[in-house]
Amino acid sequence: MKTPFHIMIIPTLGCPSSCKYCWSSEEGSPVMNIKVVKDVVAWLSDFRYDPVTITFHGGEPLLAGSSFYRQALPLLAKGLAKNKPSFAIQTNLWRMTPELAKIFAGYNIPIGSSIDGPEDITDY
What we know:
The chain has 124 residues and is of the alpha/beta class. The protein has a single domain (5-123), classed as TIM Barrel. 32% of the residues lie in helices and 15% in strands. It has helices at 34-44, 65-79, 98-106, 119-123, and strands at 5-9, 52-56, 86-91, 111-113. The chain has a 4-stranded parallel β-sheet with strand order 1-2-3-4, with no helix packed on it. β2 (52-56), α2 and β3 (86-91) form a beta-alpha-beta unit.
């Protein structure tokens, strides 16, 4: 029997919103260094779990930017190939761009979204 394993990667605690229920910090928070992603790959490389699902969460994970995902996704996909990784992301979509959408589509990443923010944005 295969044992599934789920991890969450939080590329930044920052968020452009200020939702009252959230602990997230301001938008300018630091972005995870790609070395941390390499460390995650090294840490998981001996795990015998498959499949592995990796969810990007936050804060607002889109604030990490396209450069982060262009580096992180291949490292995770190739480095954990034996674990059959799949990916997901949970985002408020405020910072979604065509470039990020293309990157996520290339890895078949499902996007979970919440409706957050001030009334004028939420109602839009």
